[in-house]
Design goal:
Two copies of one chain form a homodimer. Chain A is of the alpha+beta class. The first copy, chain A, has two domains: 131 residues, PurM-like, N-terminal domain (60s Ribosomal Protein L30, Chain: A), CATH 3.30.1330; 147 residues, Phosphoribosyl-aminoimidazole Synthetase, Chain A, domain 2, CATH 3.90.650. Chain A contains ten helices and twelve strands. In chain A, the strands form two sheets. A six-stranded mixed β-sheet of chain A has the order 1-2-3-6-4-5. A six-stranded mixed β-sheet of chain A has the order 8-10-7-11-9-12, with helices on both faces. The longest helix of chain A is centred in the first third of the chain and has 17 residues. The interface between A and B is large, with 71 and 71 residues.
């Protein structure tokens, strides 16, 4: 009997779609892409569940609302889209204060508003755990870019820095007090909407994903969807400054910790010069971290050429985080 | 301090939308209506939570999946739309068997397929309670019909019969064994997609809603949104045969029990003859049960003219149903 907790399970139970001309991209990517005559839409759903994704004292209700929206916007960014409409489903314990729920909702609305989206509907159910599930619809760009499309020889790029949010979680779970930089990063992801649009519209990239479950795991999704492998150079990974002061374990955390919400994309070698010229339009730094290879799986090597091993590639919802 | 459980709370915390030309109908109706240049979409979200909306032995996993989809399709039907795309969010306890989750998903897909819709994406999170949240996108009809629009003098109509699903729940909760007819009705709602389309496209109706929380409560939503009252004749209400054999309390249950997923609509008096001619196109019976009035609130009167009192208008997620 397979366990429900087995990683990646949602993809394995979602159906293989038959030939529907109105579904351009089905399950297995950051967003599905649907269209009705003419216009294509990106659609995505993601959830934050108390005790699984956060503890109540890690975020204020408003911050929780903002983050619920922002992590969905990151999926839209990963396919080069523009967030437009969202629906919110709340699971709420009877003891949760209504004033706090209003704050959660205000946080969702403020984040949506900043990115040009509107909250158009919702549902509220009683539940034992607080949870916020947001479905976000985004305008699709004029061309589609998914996780599938990376080719051997393509260079792997990553926006921003990684590791800080995972560090905050790691320290909270061990009873520590994370630094302000780490906490801010956990609380307020910065979905790379502008960079996502620019990268997709530029036609310079062959695949893209957002890094939500950890670099190694999410790059693994690209490799699997594209039928390729990846070679990553540890020294090139833009580890967040707050993690760099810490021992080696922080590096490992940065690679597998998750919640970074940066963009990971692959660029054919002949596009590298043009990518340089695009950098100013991205609104964030972008770094080359490795190369797509023949074969399969993600290999991370240090400066001496030694391969790092990961027992567990990234954030697993069924790992104990309570 | 307001309690989270206060009825109708979701509407009160969802934002009043400013002037966005791309949002035709915002929160407070069965679906929101959004559009991108040209085409309008209905979007809705609804959730089934174990211990709140069902107990595990009331439905097989496949039936649970089907019902999760069908209750959303009912919201699309209530606005005359055609279900098209859905996203599924699962909250799953670690002990839940993956084979059962596959059956839930198969149930969703089978129901979606029967109604012409595709499951295009999803998300799975660990949770203490089993829950299935579905966001459904539907094609909007060429005109919009919401809960707002009922006028004094309009006649109130209801499709099908009501009360059987609530009877099953009532009997299960008291340790009884509901009859097959009641159980089937609870397990497999029949969203009135065909009737909803025909009613909206006919332009004969002034408002519509689906009866999911109980007739009195849902008619109350129409009254509130339209700024009117309603006068309902008890004798005219199409109570399900399985409830008719039971004492008076079953009638009360039929009016306030919920989970009927029938359509309730209002029809200006001058359209009544044309509505008769439409009946064959609906695919289900439709009955006149009362009239919209000046004033506010829903009044149900028996054959002697005596008014029935309801402590509690319908299904409340925060009432104890465990």
């Amino acid at each position: 009997m397979q366990e429900v907790g087995e990683f990646g399970f949602i993809d394995s139970i979602l159906p293989k779609l038959g030939k529907r001309r109105d579904v351009l991209v089905g399950p297995g990517h950051d967003c599905a892409v649907v269209r009705s005559p003419g216009r294509a839409w990106l659609v995505t759903v993601d959830s934050l569940v108390e005790g699984v994704h956060f503890k109540r004292h890690w975020l204020s209700p408003r911050q929780l609302g903002r983050k619920s929206f922002l992590i969905n916007a990151s999926d839209i960014a990963a396919m080069g889209g523009q967030p437009r409409f969202c629906l919110v489903n709340f699971g709420v314990p009877p003891t949760y204060r209504s004033a706090d729920l209003v704050r959660v909702q205000a946080g969702i609305v403020s984040a949506a508003d900043e990115l040009g989206a509107a909250v158009v509907g919702g549902n509220l159910s009683q539940a034992t755990q607080l949870s916020i599930t947001i479905t976000l619809l985004g305008e699709a760009p004029s061309r589609l870019c998914t996780r599938a499309g990376a080719q051997p020889g393509d260079q792997i790029f990553l926006t921003g820095t990684i590791g800080a949010a995972a560090l905050a979680v790691h320290q909270w779970l061990r009873g520590g007090t994370p630094s302000g930089a780490a906490v801010r990063r956990f609380r307020e992801p910065e979905p790379r909407v502008r960079a996502g649009k620019a990268l997709v519209e530029s036609r310079l990239i062959s695949s893209m994903i957002d890094v939500s479950d950890g670099l190694v795991q999410d790059l693994g999704h690209v490799c699997k969807a594209s039928g390729v492998g990846a070679h990553v150079e540890l020294e090139r990974i833009p580890i967040a400054p707050v993690c760099r002061k810490l021992p080696n374990s922080a590096t490992r955390l940065a690679l597998s910790g998750g919640e970074d919400y940066e963009l990971l994309c692959t660029v054919p070698a002949h596009n590298l010069t043009r990518l340089k010229h695009l950098q100013a339009a991205l609104g964030c730094p972008i770094h080359r971290i490795g190369e797509i290879t023949h074969g399969r799986g993600v290999k991370v090597v240090d400066a001496t050429g030694k391969r790092l091993r990961f027992d567990h590639g990234g954030f697993d919802h069924f790992a104990s985080r309570r």
